[in-house]
What does this fold into?
Amino acid sequence: MSEPALELIDIRCVFSAKDDASARYTAVADTTLRVAAGEFVSIVGPTGCGKSTLLNVAAGLLEPSSGSVKVFGQALTGINRRAGYMFQSDALMPWRSALANVMAGLEYRGMPDEEARGLAQQWLARVGLSDFGDRYPHQLSGGMRKRCALAQVLALDPDIILMDEPFSALDVQTRQLMENEVLDLWAGGSSRPVGSDGRESSGRKAVVFITHDLDEAIAMSDRVVVLSAGPATHPIGEFSIDLPRPRDVAEVRVLPRFVELHTQIWNVLRDEVLKGYSQQLRRAA
Ligand SMILES: Nc1ncnc2c1ncn2[C@@H]1O[C@H](COP(=O)(O)OP(=O)(O)OP(=O)(O)O)[C@@H](O)[C@H]1O
Ligand SMILES: [Mg+2]
It folds into this structure.
């Protein structure tokens, strides 16, 4: 069997409080997660449980307190260069146009300006923004900004895509459109741009998709991993999503198998969500 695209092995993340270094909070503990090449995995869990923390570990932005990360079998040290990261918040540079935002990562990689421009234009077209390349982020709608961020990540042709609640701020209709587009891009449409070196973009990417939304997780994924409420968050359930593909995220929700999976997963998630919620209330008090 080929190496997993991403392995988080026995991860533990302990944070110390800003004002009191002796006060420590174990956000994540005993977490092992493997994602195969080309696999679409969603991680669901209550708010504040440690989802973004885990994704930061996978991206190489946060070093775990213990445990290790492997990327295609190699130990990860520093930034994960095989991964593209779509952040929870808008991460476009406000002083750059949409086109310049998509070009930025390519330029950092040393791609000549004209080549970067051409590839960025192709990706903007692929996400439906070909006429908006000269707009600045504040001149784009929330959905358009997300499309631009998606083009920014995909232009780099990463083998692993890390997405942290990318569409949670969008209205339901726009969100469903974006979800379908992500599935379509992931499945590899024939109209994908050719990579910078002239080769067809490589096959399916491994995706780690963080969401609060169980419907979204089931509709999109091959596998859903449920995390416990914190502290010491860890996986408490794992479900293979055997719904046929290609999927339309709106249509798939009415299938009896979808409803069955939803009931099974919600049975595991419900108590954690309640725990997470009451913890937040206690912390706020
Ligand atoms: N740099 C940090 N320093 C101290 N505590 C942190 C740090 N980063 C995260 N935490 C704490 O770790 C826990 C997990 O945070 P994280 O952002 O990973 O949660 P999350 O599951 O992504 O939440 P949400 O669903 O609200 O986005 C929280 O209690 C948070 O306060
Ligand atoms: Mg988060």
